[in-house]
Amino acid sequence: MGEELVTVATSYNIVEAEFLRNHLEDEGFEVYLADENIVGSYNLLANAVGGIKIRVPSREAQDAMRFVDDLRNAEIVEEDLEEIDSGYGVCEKCESRDISPYREGFGLKGVLLFLGIPLMKPRRKLICNDCGFERFEK
Ligand SMILES: [Zn+2]
Fold first, then answer.
1. pTM, full prediction
2. Are residues 16 and 71 in the same domain?
3. Ligand 1 geometric centre to CA of 136 (Å)
4. Rounded to the nearest whole angstrom, what is the distance from the C-alpha of residue 4 to the centroid of ligand 1?
């Protein structure tokens, strides 16, 4: 007897989709992800397929939607906890901990490093994801 599946959340981010799936499963929901592979492998296609759909059987849909809402509201707190361990310190401008290495293109420096040609110790550029402030790693 096939039961109808209902989409309770859509995500363009495989990490978020997995996060939702794990937490829903912990709560005892029966979770199916649709289009997760295509989005995971080809991020550019995420828009085309409308994101990753998180689905549950229709009888669980209402509870699952409520749970997803709660999770998305609580998610920020969880991210904050993770960011403390990011190791990039605090933004000097806005004190955010949401810092990540600045992604430069695969330029000449990258090629030289790849070939094993020694350079002066490279300093990574860090960028604050909240205010955009850039600085070099100490
Ligand atoms: Zn900042």
1. 0.47
2. yes
3. 13
4. 46
